[in-house]
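Summary for the funding panel

The consortium committed to producing paired sequence-structure records for every protein in the target list. Below we show the first two records in order, beginning with the earlier of the two.
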Amino acid sequence: MNTPANITQLYNALFQIEAKLKSDKEYPIHKRLNLGGNFNDIYEYLISKIDVKNKSILDAGCGVGFGSLLFAKNNAAKVVGISVSDLEIESAHRNKSKYHFESIDFQVSNFENTAASSYDLIFCVESLKHSLDFDKDFNALLNGLNTNGKLIIVDDFFEDKIINATAKSFMTDWNLNFLLALSHFSNMSDEFKLDLEDLTHYMPKKSVFKINIQLLFFKVFRRKSMFKKLFKGGLLLDKLFAKKVMKYQLISITKQE
């Protein structure tokens, strides 16, 4: 069973790897998407669809603050960005200092500390799958919504009924207690309305053959490290997408009157 320390270690390592691979203008963790237009990051896509003006927003899993800064640039009233990674939050504060947005507050925190009835919009981008207790964290996020508020979740959703060896290995490498699935949202009360958009077609296509060739490297390279686990886990996730048992989904949950 994973612990909060495991998840913090994982996100700190992800930050260190991805920050070296991508430019300062890109969010260092999210997938590259073929969204068309003038952007390829999921936060930019969300901004194009959702009006954030004058809204109070929680960016739950904010990373280095890329999305939070976009919300502020688009005239959000208040933005709270949280991450379990102290390295990400340190970077987020540095990024904030470049723009002098007084409406943003970055904190090292987790889902369960979400203040009740405080937000018009809560964004959970590629972070909810790392929850250690889904029911507790999901209910905390729902409880954080104002009336007519929306919880926006974008993440990898497992579509198969059987967790195969590839999926189990992926879970181990990325310190996951479970694989996020649509079934996790089946018991919500009538107070909440769910809308779903499949974004899988925006992802670059990769072949199982090429992914398997890359995975062979990790069988030869026997030295254990967090970086090896993360790279291998990323390839296993690619393989699950290539085998069409994983989808990239956008879920919008509205708290109704």
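The next record, for a separate protein in the list, is shown here:
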Amino acid sequence: MRGILMIKMSRCFLWCCLGVSSQVAMAQAQTPVLKKIAAGGHLVLAHRESSIPFSYLNGDKKPVGYALDLCLKIAEAVRKKTSMPNMVVDYLQVTPANRIDMVAQGTADLECGSTTNNAERRQKVAFTIPHFITGARLLVRSDSPITLLEGLEGKRLVSTKGTTPLKAAIQANRERMLRIQILEASDHEKAVEMVEKGEADAFVMDDVLLYGLAASRPNPAGLKVVGKFLTTEPLAIMLPKGDPDFKALVDEEMRHLIYSGEARTIYNKWFMQPIPPKNTSLSMPMSYLLKDFWKYPSDQVPL
């Protein structure tokens, strides 16, 4: 009996080692980004479909947004560093469910969206300095009496698959025994539609995204953002883990954009001025949280 047990344990140990070895081999097999570009490769920017105003498709189905503008500045720094002025930038549309894997596997070099930097994700990918700090709140119909998460007891709450607000909602529902029916949507657009159609009573997501999504709807006045912050979310550009030279360049360029004031100019373009597709303004001045964080910009966040 002991011999059988030892064999099973040995097999388990072997499979664990093989799993770790395969992950290490995959990481080592990926060509460092700057080396790839210097050899004539393309820089791949991952973008989202409906993360307004960070990363989304405009009326012409072209990727645009605040995070994308920052990524394009980083792309210029990559061109200079590698002495490749004709470097080609490719765009890759990703979803909340696959965005981390696309970067971790080396399919995308930068993910220019609205992704939260936290400890769980840092096991797979790296992050640069946050470009926004937000928190999760609720989007409901304007005629809804719901103002807090507790008001959803026994009701339906939707969030987007693969997001931190979804995990936070599941945890809060369990800990507070609210009996909320948690629904998952494939993307932000679908989640908003579910609220509009009455298929869900609220949509929990980063409040800045909720404001942007509501402003882009056929009837913006039919929706409202309510509730206290369920989470605190430092949003940052993702990049491959284990590529120190590329990360150093990205961090250096982000600090340059912040200290020179260019980052604030880009912020005002997307949060304080009319933006596509409806040419309406979010009218969201920079928060004191982001202003304070940018005084000493770092990729270190307390999550």
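Regarding this second record: The two ends are 46 Å apart (CA to CA). The chain has two domains: 31-133+234-293, 136-231.
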